[in-house]
Amino acid sequence: ISTVTSIDEVEEAITQRKLGDWTDTEYIELLLESAILSRELELAPSIIRNRFTRAESSCKRYGTTPQLYEIFYQRGWTEFYWLENPLGTYEYLLKLKPLLDEEVNVDRIEKYITLFNVMTNALVSELFDDEEAINAEYDYQDELLKRLEGSKLRSSYLYLKFSLLEQDLIYGSREEDDINRVLGEMAPILQEATNHVDIPFESLCKIIEQAGSIIEHNETYESLIDMLSDILSKRNQDITAANVQMKRGLQNLGKGDFVQAIRHLGQCVDLFGKESTKGDYVRACGYLGMAYKRQDLLYAAKVMFIKAEAMILHEVELHGSLDH
Predict the structure, then answer these.
(1) d(Cα 273, Cα 264) in Å, to the nearest integer?
(2) Residue among 271, 305, 270 nearest 288 (CA)
(3) Residues 6 or more apart in contact with residue 290 via CB below 8 angstroms
(4) What angle do CA 1, 31, 98 make, to 5 degrees?
(5) Could you report the per-residue pLDDT of 218-259, keeping only the tens digit for each?
(6) Of the candidates 158, 209, 232, 282, which lies 20 to 30 Å from 191 by C-alpha distance?
(7) CA-CA distance, 74 to 160, in Å (whole number)?
(8) 62, 105 in Cβ contact below 8 A?
């Protein structure tokens, strides 16, 4: 019942939206939300497809490229899991590629790889029979990896490299030497990935954990799990410590003790520099900037405000809308 009420409210908001000649990212979010709710309610396939088509066509006029990419991704996911149409999923996988080539980042790679894995599973399950099409995507991924190697897009390179190794681990040889090679190449990627704010590190860890269901009696894998455990423990400690520092920094800021506020807030900024705590990073930079400004350290304040703005704009670049 709550979902029906929600979709009615979304449709009402869409109807009442006043559109102009400008970009309206919130309008596109409403259209996509309506399409997603339609599939979750398992409405008629024609309704689901019409609402996705409405979101897509409107996005080309009122939305942003990242939003269009998200619509293509959600449509591809929907075609397979809700509408049982692997050909439709493949169609939208292909639509992602020009936009990925236009702007390569971790978020776009993740969505492309997710749909590709769906199609790979469809091929293995004999729900899709165009093996040459899948092989062409493997070639595309190899070419993209070569383009990224040595470029400034280090996060994207690491994420794509890990994704290709994941494919080797799942679909490749079950010989111990081959598994050890893949795991051995994954280890340094995971160690470096923890320092990249765009890489969803916890998601990579879940992939490694899930791989345990197909790996038996392998010392390399056991050592990799130990390494991940140490890294996750340190990351969790960092986040816990950062929250303590920010709480005290805000107390100091509220009491007018700007020197101590700078001390505590300054220690939590770097600790929050992770994919899962980007919002906290922005808030910490903003509060620290306020503390600097109250202490008449205007240049330092400007630097922190710029850091906060840069992260916000980066998120807009990735997702196409602003998280207020």
Answers:
(1) 15
(2) 305
(3) 253, 301
(4) 135
(5) 899 999 999 999 998 888 888 888 889 989 999 999 999 999
(6) 282
(7) 20
(8) no
